[in-house]
């Protein structure tokens, strides 16, 4: 299945990249970008046939799993939903989000191609998108996972991924026998996106297994295949028998499988990669947002320089979800418990971070967290420990 998905995606990418002159790893642009079509300033939206979409990816989606792959599935879903031609899509792949010059060059090339809206998919693209949005007010810059926006042509999109993480914590808490669960994290406590996810996961664990603890090992990178595998190995060596992750590759899943342990995947269904380890995966359907955003541009609901809104989706609108459970691996009663809690989340009866309930951290302090404002979360809940 993985090979089929990878081949289809690689073929799709090849067609789209051929149409726009190939991909780039951040080579310098040779000229100043021209302004896109004047349709961006009419206030009536951009005609479908005149629209051009740019995307910046952290890694190569053709790898067939993980973060960039999942965003690419969303982009291709949007293209199909809106019946757009592949020559209306320009993509830049393998753009290191720690290399500011490469990020700027990639986005500048998208501007040169005449893109009306640019999707910047990684946290580290945020500051460049913000600066270019000011310089090019007739282009919409839409940034994933960040915390900045200007309300006129630069917005942020993300979602309540903590909802699915809580549910995956139920699967982990019911499965562990050592009561030590590892978590490979891209960033440390100061990053609210990662930390709120860890806390939601740990709260899900505690809801079914109050004796279990979650041990966090930080890689300090959103995409580091070697570092992710090393962190996973260290957690397994310390006695963790289930691993979760907020990193991009399948390294932790493969490490768990090799060690005879279990794991919770992220972004794509990682049971395709580690069928003997992955219990369930926390997933995104980015096509929900990409379709909405591009439709808004065509309709004139969003007009660069006039109006653009942030987006924060959830399980109810389909942006956030779980993969199917790996039934031969999960503990008895897992499906029933997850279904019970998921129904409450989707109906609005209950949520993990409701902005009212006090949560105890691991230093004895209490906090109230509104899920939309995850940036304030720089603390770990009581059953989380940091591993050096």
UniProtKB/TrEMBL annotation:
Gene3D superfamilies: 3.40.50.2300. CDD domains: PBP1_BMP-like. Residues 1-21 form the signal peptide. This is BMP family ABC transporter substrate-binding protein. It comes from the Bacteria. Residues 57-347 form the ABC transporter substrate-binding protein PnrA-like domain. It comes from Candidatus Allofournierella pullistercoris. GO terms for cellular component: plasma membrane. Keywords: Signal. Pfam families: Bmp.
């Amino acid at each position: 299945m993985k090979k089929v998905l990878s081949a289809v995606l690689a073929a799709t990418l090849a067609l789209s990249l051929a149409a726009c002159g190939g991909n780039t790893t951040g080579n310098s642009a040779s000229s100043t970008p021209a302004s896109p079509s004047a349709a961006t300033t009419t206030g009536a939206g951009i005609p479908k046939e005149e629209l051009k979409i740019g995307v910046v990816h952290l890694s190569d989606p053709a790898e067939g799993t993980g973060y960039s792959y999942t965003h690419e599935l969303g982009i291709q879903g949007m293209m199909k939903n809106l019946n757009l031609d592949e020559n209306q899509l320009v993509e830049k792949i393998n753009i290191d989000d720690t290399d500011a010059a490469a990020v700027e060059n990639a986005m500048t090339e998208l501007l040169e191609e005449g893109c009306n809206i640019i999707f910047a998919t990684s946290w580290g693209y945020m500051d460049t998108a913000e600066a270019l949005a000011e310089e090019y007010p007739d282009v919409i810059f839409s940034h994933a996972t960040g915390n900045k926006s200007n309300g006129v042509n630069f917005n942020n999109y993300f979602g309540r991924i903590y909802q699915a993480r809580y549910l995956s914590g139920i699967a982990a808490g019911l499965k562990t026998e050592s009561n030590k669960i590892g978590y490979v994290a891209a960033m440390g406590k100061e990053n609210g996106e990662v930390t709120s996810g860890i806390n939601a996961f740990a709260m899900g664990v505690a809801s079914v297994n109050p004796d279990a603890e979650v041990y966090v090992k930080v890689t300090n990178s959103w995409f580091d295949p070697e570092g992710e595998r090393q962190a996973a190995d260290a957690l397994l060596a310390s006695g963790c028998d289930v691993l979760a992750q907020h990193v991009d590759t399948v390294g932790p899943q493969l490490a768990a499988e090799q060690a005879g342990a279990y794991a919770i995947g992220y972004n794509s269904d990682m049971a395709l990669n580690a069928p003997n380890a992955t219990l369930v995966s926390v997933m995104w359907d980015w096509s929900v947002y990409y379709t909405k955003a591009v439709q808004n541009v065509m309709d004139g609901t969003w007009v660069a320089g006039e109006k653009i809104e942030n987006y924060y989706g959830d399980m109810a609108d389909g942006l956030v979800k779980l993969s199917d459970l790996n039934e031969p691996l999960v503990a008895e009663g897992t499906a029933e418990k997850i279904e019970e809690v998921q129904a409450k989340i989707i109906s609005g009866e209950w949520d993990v971070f409701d902005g009212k309930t006090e949560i105890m951290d691991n230093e004895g302090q209490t906090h109230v967290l509104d899920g939309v404002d995850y940036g304030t979360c720089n603390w770990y809940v009581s059953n989380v420990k940091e591993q050096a």
